[in-house]
Amino acid sequence: MGSFGQKHSVLPGFGPTLGYTIFYLSIIVLIPLSALFFKTATLTWDQFLVAVTGPRVLASYRVTFGSALFAAGVNAVFGVLLAWVLVRYRFPGRKMIDALVDLPFALPTAVAGITLASVYSPNGWLGSYLEPRGIKVAFTPLGIMVAMIFIGLPFVVRTVQPVLEELDHEIEEAASCLGANRWQTFCRVIFPTMLPAVLTGFALAFARAVGEYGSIIFIAGNMPMVSEITPLLIITKLEQYDYAGATAIATVMLVASFLLLLSINLLQKWSRRFAD
Amino acid sequence: MHATKALKKNGEKVSSVSEPAWVRYLLITTALGFVALFLLMPLAAVFVQALDKGWEAYLAALHEPDTLSAIWLTLLTAVCCVPINLFFGIVAAWAIAKFSFTGKSLLITLIDLPFSVSPVVSGLIYVLIFGLQGWLGPWLQAHDIKIIFAVPGIVLATIFVTFPFVARELIPLMESQGRDEEEAALTLGASGLQTFFRVTFPNIKWGVLYGVILCNARAMGEFGAVSVVSGHVRGSTNTIPLQVEILYNEYSYAAAFAVASLLALLALVTLAIKTVAEWKIQQSQSVTEGER
Question: ipTM more than 0.90?
């Protein structure tokens, strides 16, 4: 019998490849990540609590997680719309839009940051239109949400598209034969099939928005207590040599990321079970 | 069954399973409006602002010495990170896709970890190890080796954030391709490496391309993690994204957007190659399904 309880296999190279995988994973990912926990462990529990629950820190959680929640929600709604339109309808430029949906994945965050900031700034293309009407986007939490919508845009679209593509037309036809109108068919038949994918996409967009730095800091006001995101607070503390504080907050972010990753995995397991 | 599928391919709709025309137009217009607002406008703004002061100013901004050294550092980082992570991706995908063992899904989750960690945290953990106050800090200082606030730190942080890209693309691809062909090659007398290069690699080459260009795009564009580990010293420890930030914060908008336009062009090329690679992967998968 092989190691790790593997079934006997004819193919060679299991030992070396698995060994290298675990080795490289450890030195690049696991050991550095554990450094974070070890450093935080040097703080006493009280010191840790003070570092992660100060008013400025709490405000940054509110800004970061609150904006990410809103942005992921917007992306869920428009992502479903986009996926629907891309899968179900034909129109000129469809293939190009389909490819362009992945732009936030490919565009570096700093570039996204400065272009969003300039578009929504008071004399930008949209800012000069919105600000006289009282809608301040740049340098406010609203700007943070706009940036988060941008970077989360592909996630829901890309998780929902495969589900819609595989949806059997026969099911919709059957519903229609049984007397459902189009809206009922959508609500009772199509949407429940999409729901796990929508939730997965939502969670992915949320997780990405929470950790994002480069796209947001240019358009955010970065004012403490008002429009400061948690990653920026970590960097500010680093620049002030408050390593303990920075590490404590980073640990909170990391734990949040792990929890989100776990939820996403569970959601993906749920969608796969649903698909069968 | 065939009739339904034929109708789907023509794009014609059977009226009971489709929306009325006005609903369709409304949905399409709203979706396109959303895309225009959130995708097209920011993208166009990069190029319009870059050429704001004219073509010559654009070229001059790109030839500036600090910018040139930023471009050089970015290319160097990509050249270091992509092959290393490519090698890892192929090795890990081989171990995971071609064999069964306990703990496989845990391993896959661990490989995905850098994807879910904030870039700032990614940089911070390397500062904690290699920084002056870090684990190896005193040893590094004693030997006069600079990692944090120098190029090696930037490369390390970039390796971390681009770690999963090739692996997470190859694993599902190789899993869907199964082991039949490799086992057949072995029974015909091929060695392990021969099997890999002659049988496995041609099957996965489009997946490899897809993973490599995404890895490259992220390596060249990474900002948060590099921002933490770099010394932000102009002309030596700045990558293109950091240079963009410096120029923007100095109000040299046209220059900032000129440099940013390089990355935007890279993004568009990445998207184009990605689309082709995806299409090729889909093609090869439908061929293998057709054969079964």
Answer: no
